[in-house]
Amino acid sequence: MKPTTRLIALVWLVVGASIWWTALQGGLAPLSLRFFATIQLLGGIFLLMRLTIGWVFLITMSVFVMVTGLFALLSVPFMPAEMLQRTPRLLGLDPRWTLALTAALGALIGRLCWLGLRNDPPSNWGE
User: Fold this and answer.
1) Domain boundaries, given as residue ranges, for the chain
2) What is the pTM of this model?
3) Between vectors from CA 20 to CA 19 and to CA 22, what angle results, nearest 5°?
4) N or C: more exposed end of the chain, with fewer CB within 10 A?
């Protein structure tokens, strides 16, 4: 297993753990978000244990994040004003730019994770 695959597993493990931590502290975390956080946690743990199911979970999550990031990026210009009112102003940017940059970052991270996992399938781990 390549070091980048272990790093990807750790990243997904941290993302899933932070979502669950937020949910347990009373933060906004709908059932679907907790479900995906559980998949991220299990995928990270299983991948670090060199189980194929962890690779399957995380490559699936990577594709999901990449595609939803692209759809979110396409929908930013059509966001209603009510949705933009609660968007934080990071670095003094307009809320639409904040949403667009967040969506683009999600798509990029998903793509990089997918490429890393695709280039290190479980069949190569014995080498």
Assistant:
1) 3-124
2) 0.87
3) 65
4) C
